[in-house]
Predict the 3D structure of the following.
Amino acid sequence: MFIFNFVADIILGQILNWIYQQIVNFLNNFFFMMNNMGADLFDMSWVRATVLLFHYFGWALFVAGLIVAGFEYAIESQNGRGNIKDLLINSLKGFMAVGLFTVLPIELYKFAITLQGSFGADISRTLGYGFNITVLSVSALNSFSIGPSMNILVSLFCIIVMGFAVIRVFFANLKRGGVLLIQIAVGSLYMFSVPRGYVDGFYQWGKQVVGLCLTAFLQSTILVAGLMVFNANMLLGLGLMISSSEIPRICGMFGLETGTRANVMSTIYAAQAVANLGSKVVNAVPK
């Protein structure tokens, strides 16, 4: 009888461990699919047309900025402060920026999503080596030193927290493709400033794109890692899963803002700069 119970526990543990591994694989594939939907957004015809529109708009602003930079150089040269080297370098920066601002963000985002999917699949396979969900989960619950009734409440609490973390990451992944499209639209406005040497706003825009791609990779990866750790240590696994929703805020603290609020403010400032320059040109034209 003892041998039968021992063999049954081993078989049951392997079955539960396999089920848990399949759940982790499903969630990893699900979040990869959600992120990939954001990448597939740029394969739609109307989105490609929108990106192409902002691409042409960026080229138009680049040409206008290049002409203004030439006039500014001519004015500065009359006062002995003109620098042809800075003009050429800024023009080269603007040419590279206008050629890549609609291509590089999309390709970088697709690379981050592909890397997240393959990396999450690789780390989830480790559940099949050396884990026993029955023994580890029971020992994790017993570490609280509480009765069986409280164990049920703790398990229910853990399930609620897991669902909260998964839902927050789900909605974050759902809107990320649209946020990237907004960032590309905003990036076109900086093409007027780059050839004139004002690149701080464009650098900040590049940080936003990098922050969005980094968040897309880290959020789902940390969530899958939390599910793996949850198998051995419930509290530590829950902490990892909750921390995955804090990644955008942490990136924002280091200048990698991923929200749309900074993009809208950048749009307002860039539009105001273009409008002010246009009014100055109109006023300078003799009537």
